[in-house]
């Protein structure tokens, strides 16, 4: 009987270890999938040496992979209507962090970003929108693009700005007239 209990206990311990290993493998697989997704936002030459990070529920970035070229690719933002990954240079990442914290980005440091999987926004005019504006039937669908994250340049660009329904096949200003204005330049 003691031997059966020991074997039974061993089987339970083995099952728990295997379940833990499976959860760990699933977590590792999920992390690898998130990293691949994030890197798909940039050209291969940028993605090869970019860091990868994700915003946590606390609004802070968690690094998933170290980088060496000054670019950081972010996993898709679940708050977007159609979550897509994005890659930012150092100034672009600072712009995004300022936006996430509700602070004004440094106007003297323009940032750049790739979103080669495309992107989306709830509104073209309200950077804080978390759902469709009243009366709207669809969100802003943005094809693969690069961004210039610089409100001064965006607002002075002369590109279409402030339109509820921008022509996203051509360059335009997203969030025009705000401190988070940025130039969107489609690449396909």
Account of the 3D structure:
With 188 residues, the protein is an alpha+beta fold. It has 4 helices and 10 strands, in the order H-H-E-E-E-E-H-E-E-E-E-H-E-E. The strands form 2 sheets. It has an 8-stranded mixed β-sheet with strand order 2-1-3-4-5-8-10-9. It has a two-stranded antiparallel sheet with strand order 6-7. Strand 1 (51-55) and strand 2 (61-65) form a beta hairpin. The longest helix has 38 residues, at 2-39.
Structural topology:
Layout: H1 2-39, H2 44-47, E1 51-55, E2 61-65, E3 72-74, E4 86-88, H3 90-101, E5 111-115, E6 119-121, E7 140-142, E8 145-149, H4 151-156, E9 172-174, E10 182-186
Parallel strand pairs: 1-3
Antiparallel strand pairs: 1-2, 3-4, 4-5, 5-8, 6-7, 8-10, 9-10
Please tag this protein with its features.
disordered N terminus, 21% strand, 8-stranded mixed sheet, 4 helices, single chain, globular, alpha+beta, 188 residues
Measured as a percent range, the helix fraction is 25-40%
Kindly state the mean pLDDT as a whole number?
86
Order of helices and strands: HHEEEEHEEEEHEE
Q: Radius of gyration in whole Å, from Cα?
A: 21 Å
Q: How many domains comprise the coordinates?
A: 1
The proportion of strand residues reads 15-25%
Biggest sheet: strand arrangement:
2-1-3-4-5-8-10-9
List low-pLDDT spans: 1-19
Structural class: alpha+beta
Largest sheet: 8 strands, mixed
Number of helices: 4
The count of β-strands is: 10
